[in-house]
Write a structure and sequence with these properties.
58% of the residues lie in helices and 0% in strands. It is mostly helical.
Length: 573
């Protein structure tokens, strides 16, 4: 049956043809429509046509449909005709696709959507892109994604973006990445982040960088990390920075490290700190170094510590200083050690003091020496003690009684006369018998230039006792007591006599107050001759505990008749 459609004028179609007439058209009638008749169809005609009828339109006729008429097609009908292999969807121009309603776009199935041309997809309005199903976005090819505008890419939801493959993520380029919102960035998977090029990561804005999670940042390649702008590095969350691998951290440049906040550095672990280059760390401000977790301090290499300025070193807290190993302490220069605060000096432990060189010790000031802990003072070696405060150990007198008491006898053996001369009565009283015994050694005789005689015999007696001999009566050395006396004179203390040095010791040199300050342990070490040399006023200053400490054999010295004694100790028992 032949069709009468070809003889209809455009005026008849536009003004006389009813929707019922259109609905009665067969496929033959639809095929017979010319490219002049199709534009004459009214919107109600298109709205009434079935998907089957629309599918018979020639592709050339589809292209001449007005955007108003196309928008009049029911959403379900458009999807149905689009799913048919008629070429209808593929024939739509960019302008026609842009004219589709959001409802029509949302109703498109993957089959209908797949027939659209790449240019047509690029023509979708941003609202329409957002309306596309996740399945439709997932069906896009890398080429189609690459042609999407920044507006379209920015309109994609996190669910839609999640469907993009690694190749498609790469295809959107730097402009596409820069167009994504913070929520979209936060929604990217680790595999998608791993696919980003260094240029794409460099294109991220600060808000986008701040949206990255630790897992996302961890997924970036080292090249991508190295390509981050300093502003973006500064914007990273501390929790995200903490997730960086050692290789990623090692890829950061000095400017990028300088952009990390103090909170970022506080979040880094030992392995991460160990991965940073010396040059990179050496450029950090004191505040960042001070923000490091003390647990990471042992990972700082010696070269780094040696490269730190005194200002940078000052950023370390006491817990950081306490965490340094002896080898790390040894890497510090004397200038760096001298610049340590008293609080930092006070944090040094015994193993750390052992790492100080003699030059380091010689550089310590009086405040630093006073700040040394008892344990640290007890760890000082003889060569360190001999140089305390300078070449002549001039600051030995700054040590407190607790520090003095903690000194090892072996270390005291290296003390010079000038150092002993600095000791106050309180310091001398803090010395134990072992410490006092260490002062009476042969090289002390050589320093004072008085070998031989009773004094020399006294030294031999001490050496003999140290060797396990029968006579176990080492005493406070006469030279040692002499310098104590000199110290008393310098301090303006009342001293009875310091004008002679009899063989028995320095009779009367020590004031009664100094005698009373001696510990019972020290008194117990005095020889018979030294006890007998005490004046009546000195003897009267002895306490009950001191007298009780004297060996019973030595008590005989106090009851012997002597014209030099005006008061016998026996009368004071």
């Amino acid at each position: 049956m032949s069709t009468l459609v070809p003889i209809l004028s455009t005026d008849q179609i536009a003004n006389a043809l009813s929707t019922q007439d259109v609905l009665s058209w067969t496929s033959e009638d639809i095929v017979a429509l010319s490219s002049l008749q199709v534009p004459a169809l009214r919107t109600d005609h298109l709205a009434a046509m079935s998907s089957s009828q629309l599918s018979w339109l020639a592709t050339s006729n589809v292209a001449v449909l007005t955007t108003r008429d196309l928008a009049a097609i029911k959403a379900a009908t458009l999807n149905a005709v689009g799913a048919l292999p008629s070429g209808f969807m593929g024939a739509l121009t960019s302008a026609q696709v842009a004219a589709l309603t959001t409802a029509q776009v949302a109703a498109l199935g993957t089959r209908a959507f797949s027939y659209l041309s790449t240019d047509a997809i690029a023509a979708f309005e941003t609202a329409d892109v957002a309306a596309l199903s996740v399945a439709n976005i997932a069906s896009l090819s890398s080429g189609q994604v690459a042609l999407m505008s920044t507006g379209q890419l920015g309109a994609l939801s996190t669910r839609q973006l999640a469907t993009l493959t690694a190749d498609e993520i790469v295809a959107i380029g730097t402009r596409g990445i820069a167009a994504l919102g913070t929520q979209a960035i936060a929604g990217l998977s680790s595999s998608q982040l791993a696919a980003l090029s260094a240029a794409q990561v460099a294109a991220l804005g600060t808000a986008q960088a701040a949206a990255l999670s630790g897992a996302q940042l961890n997924a970036l390649s080292t090249d991508a990390i190295a390509g981050m702008e300093t502003a973006d590095v500064a914007a990273l969350k501390s929790a995200a920075v903490a997730a960086l691998t050692t290789r990623q951290l090692a890829a950061l440049g000095s400017s990028q490290l300088g952009a990390l906040t103090t909170a970022d550095f506080a979040a880094l672990g030992s392995a991460q700190i160990g991965a940073l280059s010396t040059d990179a760390l050496a450029g950090l401000p004191a505040a960042d170094l001070g923000a490091l977790n003390p647990s990471v301090v042992p990972q700082l290499n010696a070269a780094l510590l040696a490269a730190l300025s005194t200002a940078q070193l000052g950023g370390f807290g006491t817990r950081h200083i306490a965490a340094l190993g002896s080898a790390q302490i040894a890497a510090l220069s004397s200038t760096q050690v001298q610049a340590l605060s008293t609080a930092q000096i006070g944090a040094l432990g015994s193993r750390q003091v052992a790492g100080l060189s003699t030059d380091d010790v010689a550089a310590l000031g009086s405040a630093a020496i006073k700040a040394l802990s008892v344990a640290a003072a007890g760890a000082l070696a003889s060569d360190q003690l001999a140089l305390l405060g300078g070449a002549n150990g001039s600051l030995f007198g700054m040590l407190g009684t607790a520090q003095i008491a903690a000194l090892r006898a072996a270390a005291l053996a290296g003390m010079g006369t000038a150092q002993v001369a600095q000791m106050s009565t309180a310091q001398a009283s803090a010395l134990s018998s072992a410490q006092l015994g260490s002062l009476a050694i042969d090289d002390r005789r050589a320093r004072h230039g008085r070998p031989g005689g009773a004094q020399d015999r006294g030294h031999r007696r001490i050496d003999h006792a140290a060797d396990g001999g029968a006579e176990q009566r080492p005493a406070a050395h006469a030279d040692f007591r002499a310098v104590l006396c000199a110290q008393q004179q310098a301090d303006g203390r009342a001293v009875e006599r310091c004008d002679r040095l009899p063989a028995s010791g320095q009779r009367g040199c020590l004031s009664p107050a100094a005698i009373a300050a001696l510990s019972p342990a020290v008194v117990a070490l005095l020889t018979t001759d030294q006890l007998y040399s005490l004046s009546s006023r000195q003897f009267a200053a002895l306490t009950t505990d001191q007298i009780g400490a004297v060996a019973s054999g030595n008590l005989d010295a106090w009851v012997r008749p002597s014209s030099a004694r005006s008061l016998r100790p026996s009368s004071r028992r």
